[in-house]
Queue: 4 jobs
Job 1
Amino acid sequence: MGDIEIVPAILRRTLEGIKEDWAKVESVAAHIQLDVTDGVFAGDGTFREIRTFKQLSNSHKIELHMMVQDPASFADDVVNLAPARCIFHIEAFAGHDNVAIVYDKLRAASPQTQFGLAINPGTPSEYLDEHIGRIDYVLFMGYNPGWAGQQVVPSVFPKIGRFAGKYPNIPIAVDGQVNTQTIPDFVHAGARILCANSSIFKEGNPIENFEQLKLLARTAI
C-alpha cells in the first residue's frame, strides 16, 4: 500500500513568514511544501521569488506547489532552486504552455527533482493520462486552490480511488482540508502523501499536530 507522509504546507505572503513557519516543522518533516500563488491562477498572491528559498535551512526538503498561470516563466527559477519536488497544475497549461515541453526541460535540467502534476476537483483525471510517463506523482486538490480552509469537494474521494485503481504504481498526494476528519477518507481512497496547512499551523503546537496527523494516517491504512 505504500508508506504515509505528512507534508506541512506553508502559504505566506512574505519570506519572513515562510521562514517562521519553516522553523516550526523542519525538524520533523521529510518534505515541506511551499505554496506559490500568482493572484491570477489562484489566490491573491504569495511570495514568489523562489530562488531565495535557498536561504532556508535544510532547503533540500522543499516541495514547490506552483499555483501559477504561466509555468514556463518559472522554469529557470525552479532549475536554479533544484527542489526535492515540484508541482504545477495541469489546468495552467490549457491554451498556454505545453506540458511536455516544460516538464521535459525541467527534468533534463534538474534530474534530482521529482515532478508532479496537480489537478483541481472539477478537472477530469483523464487529462493526466497522456502525461503519466513524464511525472513522478499526482496531487489531487480537495478544493480549488488559492485559500486555505475551504470545504472538501466530496467527489474528490471517488476520483482519487478511480485513479489509484487505474495507476496503482503512481504515488498520490492530496492537498486541501487535510485534517483529522478527512485523513481516513483520503487514505482509504489511495492517497499516501498528505499536505496539510491549517491543521498543522493554525492552532496548537505544529510539531504535535504533525505527529497526530501522521499517527492517524498510518492507523487508517
Note: The chain is about 30% helix and 20% strand.
Job 2
Amino acid sequence: MWRTIAACAIAAFVATPGQIARSEPVKIRVSWVAIVTNMPSILTLKPELMVHNGESYVFEPLHFASTPLMIPALAAGDLDVATYAYSSLAAAITKAGLTDIRVIADEFADGVPGYYSDEYMVRKDSPIRTVEDLKGKILSTSGIGGAMDVPMRIMLRKHGLDEKRDVTIIEVGMPNQRAMLAEGKVDMITSPLPFSMDTRLRETARTLFTQYDAAGTTQMIMWAARTAFIAQNRAALVDLLEDTIRVRRWFADPANHDEMVRLVTGLTKEPAEQYDSWLFTKRDYFRDPDDRPDLEATQRNLDALSETGLLAGKIDIAAHADLSLVKEAAARVNGK
C-alpha cells in the first residue's frame, strides 16, 4: 500500500509529457510579402526588444509572394497568423469558408492623410495619360485578388473599363515589375513600398493614379488568426503583440532613424539611400503606434468590394475581429 501511495505522490510532482509540451514556447508562424514594408520581415532586427521571443513564443516569419496565397496556408495549418489585405481576408471568409478568422492587429494603412499611398505607374514616355487610356493595355499585378489588385480593378470600373474585356492583367512578382515596365512588357505596374522608391524606377516611370484615388483610405494589411489558435495560445500572442508594438515604436522614433536604416540595409544589402528619406516617416505607410487596425476603414473597403461586384454579399468586420489581445498588449507597453 505504501508503495502505491508513494507512487501517487511522485506522480503528482512529475509533469506529464503533455504538460511539458505546453510549457515550451509556442511557435508562431507569421506571414509577410514585401521585405521591410511588412513588419514580420524586420521584427527581429532589434532582438533585445523582442523580450518574450524564445520564452513564451518562438517567432517564425514566413515569406509569401502575395496575400491570397496565405489563405490555403492558414486553412491547412501551415501558417498561424496571416498578414491579410482586406481583399484576401474577404476571400478567406467567403470563398475558403474560414469564418473563424479574427483580425487581431494592425500591419499598416494606405492613404491615411499625410502618409503614403501605393502607386500605379506607367513609363514617363508612355502616351497613357488617363485611366481610360489603359484600354487594350497590359497591366501587372503581384497577385490576383491581392492588396493592390482589387483597387486597380475598382479604378478600372470607375472609368468604364472591364478588367476582363478591356485590359489584360498578368501576375508579376513585385521585384520584377520595374524591369517589366522598363522593357515594355507591361504598360502599367502596381508599385508598393519599398519598390516604388527605387531610384531606377523613379527615373523612368510616373504615377498614373494612387490607391487612395481608387479606394480612399485603406486598412491595407492586418494580422489575422483562427479562433482555435487564439484560444489555445492567447498569452503567447499577447506577448508577441507587446513585443511588436515595442519594436514598431522604436523604428518610428526619429532618434533611432539612422540606426534603423543601418539595420535594414544590413538585411537587404541595398544602399541607405533606398530607405533613408522615407522609411518610418510620413512618406511611409501609417502604422498605428498601438498596433490597432482601423476597422471603420476596413468596413468601407469591404463594402466597396460588394458595391463593385468583387465580393458576393456583405461582411461585418466587427464579427471577425478580436482586438482584446492588442489592447492588452498596448496597455502593458503604455504602463496602464
Note: Residues 1-21 have pLDDT under 50 and may be disordered.
Job 3
Amino acid sequence: MVQFIRKARAVSCKLLAAGLAALAVVAITGAASAQQPVRIRASWVAVPNNLPPLLFQKKELAKNLGKTYTFEAVQYRGTPQAVTALATGDLEFALLTYSSFPLAIQNAGMSDLRIVAGEFQDGADGYYSASFVVNKDGPIKKPEDLKGKTLAVNVKGGATHGAVREYLLKHGLGDSDYNILEVSFPNMRAVLAEKKVDLISVGTPQFMWDPALQSIGRTLFTQKDAFGKTENVIWVARSGFLEKNRAAVVDFFQDMLRARRFYFDKANHQEAVKIVSDFTKIAPENLDAWLFTERDFYREPNAYPDVSTLQKNIDQLYKAGAIKQSLEVKKYVDASLIEEAVKRGP
C-alpha cells in the first residue's frame, strides 16, 4: 500500500511538472507575441499634401519604429478608394477629406470611425487654397460660362469635386449643367493645355506653382471661395484598432509629431526641400519658394483636428445636397491619443 502511494505521488509530481512546463511555454509564446510590433498602414494621395510617405525619411526621428510598430504609407488615387481599403481591413489609418468622411459613415456603414488627428487645412488665413484654373486665352471669364463645359477633378466625391459643386451652385449651376471628368493631379496641366477640359482642379501647391501651368492658366475661383476655411484632410481609424493598440498608436503619433516639427522648422527648410525633391522628383527650385510656407496649406503644429471647422464643412455639404444628412462630428472624435503624444514632448 505504501509503495502504491509513493508511485502515485511520483506520477502526480511528473504530471504537475509537465503542466508547469506547458504553462511556461504558453507564457513565453504569449509574451513574444505581445512584443510583436503593431502593423500600421496609412493612406496618401499626393505628396507633400499628405505627409505619410515623408514622415520617416529621416529615420532617426522615428524612435519607436520597428520596436512597437511598423509603418507603411499606401497610395490611392483619391480618398474614396481609401474608404474601401479601411472597410476591408487593408488600412489602419485613412487620410480622408471633409467630403469623404461622412460618406464613409453613411454609405460604407463605418459608424465606428474615429477622427484622431488633422493633416492640413485649406484656406486658412494667409495660406494656400486649392485653385480651379482655366486657360488664360480661353472663353471662360466667369463661373456661369462653365455651363455645358467639361470640368476635371481628381476623383468624384473628393474634396475638389465638393468645392466645384458648392461654388457653382452659388452661381446657379447644378450637377446637370456641366460634365465632370476624373483626371489625376499630375495630368491636370496637360488636359488644360490640350483643351480637353475647360477647367482643372489644382488641389496641390506643387502643381499650382509649376511655371508651366502659370504660363497658360489663371485661377477662376478657389476652394476658399466655395467653403471658406476647410478642415481638408483628417486622420481616421476604426475604434476597435485604437482600443486594442493604444500604446503603439501613441508611440507612432509621438514619432509623427517629431517628424512634423522637423519639416515645419524654418531652420530645416533646405533639408526638407531636398527630402521632398528626392521623393517626388520635383526640382528643388520648384519647391523652395512655397514648401511648408504660407504659400502651402496650413498644418496645425500638433496635428489637432479642427472639429468646429469640420462640422461647418459637413453642414455645408448637407445643405448643398452632396450628402444625405449631416453628422454630429464630435461624436466621432478621439483626440486623446494625439494629446497624449503631445504631452510626451520631443
Note: Residues 131-227 form a domain with the D-Maltodextrin-Binding Protein; domain 2 fold (CATH 3.40.190.10).
Job 4
Amino acid sequence: MRILAQTTVLRDAVRKRRGLIAIGFAALLAAVAATGTVKDSSPPPARATIVAPLAVALPERGSEGVHVYWNETRFDRGDTFAALLGRLGVDAADAAKLLKENGGSKPLRSLRPGMTVQAQTSDLGELLALRFVAGDEAKVLGFERDGDRFGVIDQVAEITRQTFVTSGEIRSSLFVAADDAELPDAITMQIADIFSGDIDFHRDLRRGDRFAVVYEAFFYNGRAVRSGRVLAAEFINDKKVVRAIWFADEDGMRGYYAPDGRNLRTAFLRSPLEFSRVTSGFETRFHPILQDWRAHKGVDYSAPAGTRIKATADGTVEVAEEQNGYGNVIVLRHHSGITTLYAHLSGFASGVRKGAHVVQGDVIGYVGATGWATGPHLHYEFRVNNENRDPLAMAIPVAEPVAAHRLAAFRAAADRLAAQLDLAARTNLAASE
C-alpha cells in the first residue's frame, strides 16, 4: 500500500471523512409484466430470516499515521466518471490526473451502469487505488497509484459462487412479495419468465399464492457481484403447483423442465425480437433493390439499428458470416431438420460462431442494414428440411423433453433441488403460522 509523502502531516483544518459507505448493490428496477396486483390490506406474514454477520473494516492507518479509507458507490446510468470520483471523495487534482493519463484505458471502457466501484483514499482525498469487478469477465479492473502516476489494474477476480434458498407469499404482487423475501430483482424476473407459460402474472395472482426458489449468486471479497441463474423454482397459484428444474446435459441441451422431464418452453419463440412490427410477410412482393416481383421466403421485422436479436430456439450455430444479399447472417440448426436464419445484422453477439450452442432467448446478434437492405430491419426465415415455412402461420413445434439417456442424471439433480424447494416451502409455512 503506497501513501504519498505529502500526506505525512495532517492539517487541523481537514475534515474527518465520513465512515464507510454502506455496502451492497441497489436492486435493478424491473419493468416486466409481473406486477399484477391483488387487493389486500392484511399485513405481510412473519418470515424466517437468516442473518449473517457483516464484517465492516475500520479505517486503516498508514505507515506515517495517515488514515486510509475504502469507500464505494454505484456507477449509475447517466453518470460521469468525474462525478463518480467526486462521490468517492477523490481529490479534484487526482481525478483530473487519472482521467488525463488513462482516458482510453480498459477499465474506463469496461465500466457499466450498475457496477459497484471501490476507492481507497487518504484523509486528504488522495486516490491510492480504485477497482471494480467487470461483470461476466470476472476481472478486477481499476487503477493503483505508483508514485505520481496511476497504473492500470487488470487481474482475474476470485469469484465465489453461493446457492440460496428462499420463499415468499403473495399479498399484493410478485415483486412486493419478492422484496419482502429479499430476493434480487434479476431472480424475480427469471421466475416470472420461467412460469409465464403457465401463469398470467397480470391476472392470475391470488392472495396466498406462494413461491419457493433455489438460485445462485456470485461474490467477490464477500460482496455480491451479480445474481446468477434460478436453479429450481416452485409456484403455487390458486392451489395449482408448478415446478421448474434447470438442467444442462452433456449434449449441450439446457433449459427448464418439469419434474417428469417435460420441457417447460415452447420449442420456438414467435418472434426473434422483443419489440418490433412486421413490415413484409411470407408472400410475393416487389423487391425494393432488385426492382421486380419475387417470392419473399421469410418475415421482415422493422426495428432500430442495434436492437437485440434472440435465438428463437435451442440450437447450434451453422453459419455466422457475411453472405452477399443477406449481409451478416446467422443460421441456427435445431432438432427435426429445422433451421432458422437471421439476416442483415449489424454484428454478432460475443461467442456466436460456427459450432457454438445457443439457448432459446440468447442474444445472437443485432439489427442492422448489411447486404441488400434499404434500412435497419431483421429478415427471419424458418425452414423445415430446407423448405421455407411461414413462421407467423405455422403451429409451434413441441419442445423436446429431457433425452431418454439423460433421464437418470436429470432425476438425480431434480431430486436434490426438489428437496431444497421443499425445505424452503416448509420454512415459509412455519413462519406464517
Note: The domain at 5-39+56-156 is CATH 3.10.450.350 (Nuclear Transport Factor 2; Chain: A,).
